[in-house]
UniProtKB/TrEMBL annotation:
<dbReference type="Pfam" id="PF14085">
    <property type="entry name" value="DUF4265"/>
</dbReference>
<protein>
    <submittedName>
        <fullName>DUF4265 domain-containing protein</fullName>
    </submittedName>
</protein>
<dbReference type="InterPro" id="IPR025361">
    <property type="entry name" value="DUF4265"/>
</dbReference>
Amino acid sequence: MNDDKHVKVLFRVYSNILEEITVETMWTKVIDEVQGLYELNNIPFYLPIIASGDIIFAEFDEDEKMLTYRETREYSGNSTIHVILMDDTAELKNIGKPFEELGCNWEGMGNKYFAVDVPVSVDYVLVKARLEELKQQDIIGYAESCLSEEHQY
């Protein structure tokens, strides 16, 4: 086991939100290379069904020519929310900052889209309230792409 080793894994999964096959490569931390176990190290931008900290099984795929996701073995309890800015005057960093204050991490792509990582320890009721407030003001649209059991109510 090598605690410092990180590798990229290809994910090719169907997204109910986008209604198409979604492809994304993500950094993972090697947990057990022999058993094909890896821990997701970053926030998925498009992928449903997966969140940071999840332990996945991946194997080398001859067609893809790289490590490829096969299944999730252990869920972290974290959730992934995908957000799109609907208001042209809103700035990504200003919209993302309140989520940071609630204990979430987020990463932006361009100036209209970001993904929020909601750690298992964060009270999702507060995050959901903020999402709904921004949605009702027509500032954002969002999808609960991977909502953990710990965050469902």
